[in-house]
Amino acid sequence: MARIIAGVASSHVPAIGAAIDNKQTEEPYWKRVFSGFEKSKQWMADAKPDVAIVVYNDHASAFSVEVVPTFALGCAAEFPPADEGWGPRPVPVVQGHPELASHIAQSVILDEFDLTICNKMEVDHGLTVPMNLLFGSPKAWPCPVIPLAVNVVLYPPPTAHRCYMLGKAIRKAVESYKDDLNVVIFGTGGMSHQISGPRAGLINSKFDKAFLDNLTKDPKKLTRISHLEFMREAGAEGIEMVMWLIMRGALDDKVDEVYRFYTVPASNTAVGHIILENRRRAAGKGRKPAAKAGSKLKRAAARAKVHRVRS
Ligand SMILES: [Fe+2]
């Protein structure tokens, strides 16, 4: 049986990708951002997932405004990088897991979530920036990835509740897969930000921190946030946070928060990051349980008292 061992959420600010690609990560402005992910990379190296499901949104790279699927699952064998504006990032081609992806598609669609199946798809910074933040910049990504693109660009995006319930259906799908696989699921995007209009530059740390708190302790409360409330409190692009609820829905009701980081700004966006572990331990193959890596992280954070929340 496959299992979801943990969920990771991270912003996907495109300027973070540009800072990596232009080797600016040691500059003071960017070091503040990247230092918050150092321990997370260690956590991921210890967790060694067999597959990552990355919930993200496309920025007119794979889909134009002519075709905007609400939920699009990548079932291809590979996903080449592409991007708006700056062009494709110099990152490895993302290898897929067509067999598990097709199994998820079947299970979830029969559970009445009507996914679009993508047998050819390019992936942009929405997916590759969080991967860099958690996996670093290797020559090849360390595990296959199943991309799940969510429409948060063109009204109407899916509701927070719909996203949460989709997460539950994904979990059921993963747990009915025949092979013994440890899976990590990413929720990406956010946190508060608004790119254009009179409120451009909006950041609402109070909303973001409450969202992080409830993501761990009371995710059902977050499923009641309306589109209007997201946009009013977290800016027009803050709606991206519904994607975090797909990740959260795929986890246990009670989870262990093993790490959190928050800083403002990066470009014009609040950067939030959290790692939540399911309490059932990762199994098999003599690997270090992710929970152990989490305990190490917790002890280190308690000692340093720096990595909880910065703003
Ligand atoms: Fe975005």
Overall geometry: globular
Gyration radius, rounded:
18 Å
Helical proportion, percent range:
25-40%
Strand order of the largest sheet: 6-3-7-2-8-1-10-9
Identify the notable features of this structure and list them briefly.
311 residues; alpha/beta; eight-stranded mixed beta sheet; two-stranded antiparallel sheet; 11 helices; disordered C terminus; binds fe (ii) ion
Lay out the secondary structure.
Layout: E1 3-10, H1 14-21, H2 28-34, H3 38-47, E2 51-56, E3 71-74, E4 78-79, E5 94-95, H4 98-110, E6 116-118, H5 125-135, E7 145-150, H6 160-175, E8 182-188, H7 205-217, H8 219-222, H9 227-234, H10 242-249, E9 255-266, E10 269-278, H11 290-304
Parallel strand pairs: 1-8, 2-7, 2-8, 3-6
Antiparallel strand pairs: 1-10, 3-7, 4-5, 9-10
Helix pairs in contact: 1-5, 3-11, 4-6, 6-10
The structure holds fe (ii) ion (FE2).
